[in-house]
Design brief:
3 helices; globular; alpha+beta; 2 strands
């Protein structure tokens, strides 16, 4: 998905045209074979992980290495 300045990929959500859950579902369905995808919320990059094994790796095994 191509981002637009200054909204990134969240234009419809920010302008309250679509709920964030609907936008995330569209993103999830648009890339069915990818283990993860990236989007922008304004100028901030966001990683969306789709693969259950990769989610487990990040949230359980690598949790102590995560930074916010």
């Amino acid at each position: 998905m191509k981002p637009t300045f200054p909204f990134g990929n969240m234009r419809d959500t920010i302008l309250r045209r679509k709920p964030k859950a609907e936008m995330m579902k569209k993103l999830y369905d648009e890339f069915p074979e990818e283990p993860y995808v990236g989007i922008y919320e304004f100028l901030r990059p966001v990683l969306v992980i789709r693969d259950p094994e990769l989610i487990k790796q990040v949230l359980v095994k690598d949790f102590s290495y995560c930074q916010v």
